[in-house]
Amino acid sequence: MKNIYDLTLDELKLWMKENKESEFRSKQVIEWLYKDIKNFDDMKNLPKALKEKLNSNFTMELPKVEHEYTSRLDGTKKLLLALQDGNLIECVIMKYNHGNSICVSTQVGCRMGCKFCASTIDGRVRDLTAGEILLQVIVGQKVLGERISNIVLMGSGEPFDNYDNVIKFLKIVNADYGLNIGQRHITLSTCGIVPKIIDFADEDMQITLAISLHSTTDDRRKEIMPIANKYSIKEILDACKYYIDKTGRRVSFEYSLVKEVNDSLEDAKSLGKLLKGILCHVNLIPINEIKENSYKKTDSEEVKIFAKILKEYGVETTVRREMGSDINAACGQLRRSYMETQK
Ligand code: SF4
């Protein structure tokens, strides 16, 4: 049965019309979805007949929190959620001084094949619906007991491989009838699907675009990211420039530092040369070491030197703070290890 959280206000209006109900009821229903109620019968201002129709057409079930891990170091929470069909996804809630942030998944698994990522090991199982992405934020707020004000689409899945559902999610989460989270408080991360970057630029939104770059040459990128066989770094950068022109937004480049793979002084210099003059920001990410591969984390002193070189090229750079290191489970790893224990 369809989950009502999958509907936009316009879709619900249409449903009301088709079901001979007044249009204003749709706003009432949507408002209830963001209050602490469990089922349609709790929607006090609706007539009984409408509640019955809703009950027989929709569910408003939330994903079940299968496991919750909380970092004793910084309060970061990782949630393993079971969807209606039993598939498992994960999301991470981070507490910052400027507010709570959630990293959501957009697919069950992923088919992009990035070598450093546990989400892709078993491939893509299925896309998440807009409602399933949204419900991660809603459940996150319930677990936390506080508002979440920032969202990053950087969990399992490639958002642009599930484009329509992701766009719908962004519209609902931003709407004043939804969670009303500002577009500028949302970051979408892609491995670099060029035509979708162009489409996204044309959506007329103000989302921060983040590109998983991780390499400064196409050959090296191909070794760790199969998508590089399809789109070159030059094509990605051209698409990013188009995004910047259309939106006026600064683009973020994610660069995971892997010891003795892409963390040399030469790498820092070529990254600086590549991005010099582009309205951008680099996020240096010391990798999470996972048991599925042998990649090692760059030493913190070397990370600082790498960042310093980028700054010398005028490229704004931050080193991503490690969050929840004591509940260490890189993206996709929690789901995998849980599934292994169930076998
Ligand atoms: S890093 Fe992102 S795009 Fe690459 S395999 Fe993992 S989830 Fe997919």
UniProtKB/TrEMBL annotation:
UniProt: S-adenosyl-L-methionine binding residues: 157-158, 189, 212-214, 288
Residues the entry annotates as binding [4Fe-4S] cluster: 110, 114, 117
InterPro entries: Aldolase_TIM, Methyltransferase_A, RlmN_N, RNA_MTrfase_RlmN, rRNA_lsu_MTrfase_RlmN/Cfr, rSAM, rSAM_sf
Active site (record annotation): 90 (proton acceptor), 331 (s-methylcysteine intermediate)
Protein name according to UniProt: Probable dual-specificity RNA methyltransferase RlmN
Record lineage: Bacteria, Bacillati, Bacillota, Clostridia, Eubacteriales
Domain Radical SAM core, first and last residues per copy: 96-326
Annotated localization: Cytoplasm
Required co-factors: [4Fe-4S] cluster
Family: Belongs to the radical SAM superfamily. RlmN family.
Note: Reaction proceeds by a ping-pong mechanism involving intermediate methylation of a conserved cysteine residue.
SUPFAM superfamilies on file: Radical SAM enzymes
Gene Ontology, cellular component aspect: cytoplasm
UniProt gene name: rlmN
BP GO terms, sorted: rRNA base methylation; tRNA methylation
Cofactor: how and how many bound: Binds 1 [4Fe-4S] cluster. The cluster is coordinated with 3 cysteines and an exchangeable S-adenosyl-L-methionine.
Enzyme Commission numbers on file: 2.1.1.192
The protein's role, per its UniProt record: Specifically methylates position 2 of adenine 2503 in 23S rRNA and position 2 of adenine 37 in tRNAs.
Keyword annotations of the record: 4Fe-4S, Cytoplasm, Disulfide bond, Iron, Iron-sulfur, Metal-binding, Methyltransferase, rRNA processing, S-adenosyl-L-methionine, Transferase, tRNA processing
Provenance organism: Clostridium frigidicarnis
Gene Ontology molecular function terms on file: 4 iron, 4 sulfur cluster binding; metal ion binding; rRNA (adenine(2503)-C2-)-methyltransferase activity; rRNA binding; tRNA (adenine(37)-C2)-methyltransferase activity; tRNA binding
Catalytic activity reported: adenosine(37) in tRNA + 2 reduced [2Fe-2S]-[ferredoxin] + 2 S-adenosyl-L-methionine = 2-methyladenosine(37) in tRNA + 5'-deoxyadenosine + L-methionine + 2 oxidized [2Fe-2S]-[ferredoxin] + S-adenosyl-L-homocysteine; adenosine(2503) in 23S rRNA + 2 reduced [2Fe-2S]-[ferredoxin] + 2 S-adenosyl-L-methionine = 2-methyladenosine(2503) in 23S rRNA + 5'-deoxyadenosine + L-methionine + 2 oxidized [2Fe-2S]-[ferredoxin] + S-adenosyl-L-homocysteine
Gene3D superfamilies on file: 1.10.150.530, Aldolase class I
